[in-house]
Design goal:
- The chain is 63% helix and 2% strand.
- Strands 1-2 form a two-stranded antiparallel sheet.
- Helix 10 packs parallel to helix 21, helix 13 runs parallel beside helix 15 and helix 19 packs across helix 20.
- The two termini are 12 Å apart.
Length: 536
């Protein structure tokens, strides 16, 4: 593999070399105690997602009306029509007026069904996806009261389900980066990084099937990195197989994980030396994955002739005579839409972060990853393997969006949320790149603290941008005027609407402070632990 192991002098390993070799090759690096800061940040992140659940106006998130419609259909019993055949309930199409009135005056689902019976003419495209998320969400709505629930409370329950599913993300990020970089301190810093992407927290706080996709994608990447770095215990391999299988029942975008799973099984450390056993140790986890859920794609091929059928009718718009697709225009739109919606374009792409901020963040991250990975080549193979699901996600985005643009002149399928399921891989590559660039002890501490500051700022700033846009008419000088509209429109009681963000803010500041202290400069040589250990 691309990571050269330390040399052996005189046939003996020094203690540091022995620890690193054991850490990688056995897969049993001993009991690892999770830092308290990680648990504090986990609580803060869940409450951050819950804050977005409260703050985001109802149905003003990507495809939220369709996700809500499918969950409501499931709340009345299993009903999953073929793609392109499901219709949204008429009352869901009429909820715009209800959203504008105070939350305690809104109608129940049953009242709305009576007032607006039957189905609308609008397609519910979500039946192109596997149904488990909607079964869980629909079951939750039914358990809480079904038609007796206020419609916005039913939607809020779906949103908070996403916040709960977000709970493992901070720990998974910390543990993956610890394993991949072999650095406790880099891992501690990396636990702050999800806060730097406000769009991620918003998506985890609304009703959307991206929430289980983000969870399953993160779990698969965590286990894949363990296998890549030498953990070939039976339980780990079965866990990777099961997680990848269940990912097949989450969302089609997770098909991008397939190359990663195959590559870590075939090329990861500790692989069998002989080709035959190595192939078998690659194949049998894939068979388990098929049983756990990857069969869904074979079902689609058998029924519809494609892996991912369309759930809606494509636009019949065509280019004007003498005009056609422009590559420069397409590249400019990808940069503007994909990057901005990744970092944060809140609502249904209503309230974007400032473009200059998006550009600086995007360029900086790209430079850290690309320059850092290729600066020191000991880990380049590992990096390329971890980058494989990101590359596949990017290729899929280009393929679908360019085809739509070339055929219809419309830009579709460019949202940055499609990269959230591989967010842990993105953080891992950034951590490895930074470890290769930032070598001096003082610079490492400064780098870690810069991450803490930027992540904390971005988390608060994203909420502020959305709040001012949705509740203060996008007028920062009139921010106080948005408090009353927020308290009226939010689905929660006023006390909850105020307390949840406040507790999140306190926990984030505490977690950031603990992280800041954890990477403080060592006072004695014996206590010195580098922010990032050497990659050799």
């Amino acid at each position: 593999m691309g990571d050269s192991m330390p040399s052996v002098a005189g046939g003996h390993l020094d203690s540091t070399t022995q620890r690193r070799r054991t850490f990688y090759d056995s897969g049993t690096e001993g009991r690892v105690r999770t830092p308290i800061s990680v648990w504090v940040l986990t609580a803060a992140f869940v409450l951050l997602c819950a804050t977005w659940s409260i703050l985001t106006p109802q149905l003003l998130a990507p495809d939220e009306s369709a996700h809500f419609s499918s969950a409501l259909r499931m709340s009345q019993g299993f009903d999953w029509p073929d793609p392109g055949e499901a219709l949204r309930p008429e009352f869901v199409q009429q909820l715009g007026g209800e959203r504008a009135i105070p939350h305690d005056e809104r109608s129940t689902i049953g009242e709305l069904r009576e007032q607006f019976p039957g189905a609308s003419d609008t397609l519910d495209q979500m039946t192109q996806h596997p149904p488990p998320y909607y079964m869980i969400a629909g079951g939750l709505i039914a358990a809480l009261g079904g038609d007796d629930l206020r419609w916005d409370v039913a939607l809020l329950s779906m949103r908070l389900l996403g916040a709960i599913l977000a709970a493992p993300l901070i720990w998974l990020t910390w543990n993956t980066i610890r394993r991949f970089t072999r650095s406790e301190r880099m891992a501690t810093v990396a636990a702050m990084v999800p806060f730097a992407v406000p769009g991620l927290a918003q998506m985890l706080g609304v009703a959307n099937n991206d929430t289980p996709a983000i969870l399953m994608g993160s779990v698969v990447i965590w286990l894949a990195v363990r296998v890549l770095t030498g953990d070939r215990r039976l339980l780990t391999l079965i866990g990777l197989a099961a997680a990848f299988g269940l990912a097949g029942l989450a969302k089609g975008t997770l098909i991008s994980l397939a190359p990663l799973v195959v590559l870590v099984l075939f090329f990861g450390r500790g692989r069998p030396a002989q080709l035959g056993p190595r192939i078998w140790q690659t194949v049998w986890p894939l068979l388990i994955a098929f049983v756990f859920g990857q069969w869904w794609w074979l079902r689609n091929l058998a029924l519809f002739g494609t892996l991912q059928p369309y759930g809606y009718t494509l636009s019949d718009k065509q280019w004007p005579a003498g005009q056609g697709p422009s590559l420069p225009d397409y590249v400019e739109e990808v940069w503007r839409v994909t990057a901005t919606s990744f970092w944060g374009w809140f609502g249904r792409v209503n309230a974007p972060l400032p473009q200059i901020l998006v550009d600086v963040l995007t360029v900086t991250c790209l430079l850290v990853v690309l320059v850092g990975i290729f600066r020191r080549r000991e880990r380049i193979v590992d990096a390329l393997i971890v980058a494989s699901p990101i590359a596949v996600s990017l290729l899929l985005l280009f393929r679908v969006s360019w085809a739509t643009y070339a055929d219809t002149s419309e830009f579709r399928g460019l949202h940055g949320r499609y990269f959230y399921p591989v967010i842990v891989a993105l953080v891992a590559l950034g951590a490895l790149g930074a470890s290769n660039i930032v070598r001096e002890a003082a610079a490492r501490v400064a780098f870690g603290r810069a991450i803490v500051i930027v992540s904390t700022f971005m988390s608060f700033f994203g909420l502020a941008v959305a709040y001012v846009f949705f509740y203060a008419s996008d007028n920062w000088s009139a921010w106080r005027s948005g408090v009353r509209p927020l308290l009226d429109m939010a689905s929660t009681p006023p006390a909850v609407t105020l307390v949840v963000p406040a507790v999140y803010g306190v926990l984030l500041l505490v977690g950031a402070g603990m992280t800041w202290i954890a990477i403080r400069p060592a006072t004695t040589p014996e206590a010195s632990v580098p922010l990032v250990e050497a990659a050799t």
